Amino acid sequence: ENQTAAAKKSRRLPTEHLSQAMIDDVLESSLTSYFEEGSVVAQMLRGGIEVAWFGDRHPKEAIHCLCVNRKTKTVTVVFRGSVTAHNWVRNLQIVMTDHRNPIWEENYDGWDNMISLHTGFSLYLLRKRKVDGNRKIDEIFTRLDHIGRELDSEGRYHVCVTGHSLGGALATIFSFYAAADPRFNKIGPVRAFTYAAPRVGDLKFMRAYQQLERTNRLLHARFVNACDFVPLVPTFSLEGLFIGQWYKHVGLQ
Questions:
Q1: Would the N or C end of the chain have less CB density within 10 A of its end CB?
Q2: Which among 78, 88, 82 is positioned nearest to 166, based on CA atoms?
Q3: pLDDT at position 221, please?
Q4: Gyration radius (Cα) of the chain, Å
């Protein structure tokens, strides 16, 4: 049972003769103190962060939420880490899959029109649905831009991406494609903060990622624990029984 002062006060309020304005006033004045000190929700409220959308339609999809900070005009995409057995099956699909490089028209060192990504991780965001042909990443992009334009009608808002473990892998891929989309870097780079994220792509992916960083469209801070095994894998792809392409980390560790 919630024993904070705000919660106790709310239980003492009389139920008769209460107008909606009175209720709204009490909620507004006590909201930040209603939740337990140090809890995630309490810290979010103090930081001016609101949850705008939960993407949890199906447990086998990329579970995520979109948060907003109206003061800084920032929309943050948060990806969940591994929870289900299905997540771990996908984690072990270390064979790489080729994808069209979203910045293939640009000229940079190490250019290629294709990049290779971890099959299991990329399936969450880049697989086309049989029903409508849409990808999860496009669905999130549409929702992200819609929410961002509620903050600023001209689309001048900041984009942040974060996640832990599997969520960090998805945040890495998402930040790459978001930074390549001009909708999301009008007033600054897409910022990614990942925690215990495994490697997600090959050398061609790393070169393309670095191009977005060099051109100030993407910033990525990658946090790891020196004793954690997850950021050290995968090391290479498999082609049948043989070693395939080597995985490369991106961002600043």
A1: N
A2: 82
A3: 98
A4: 21
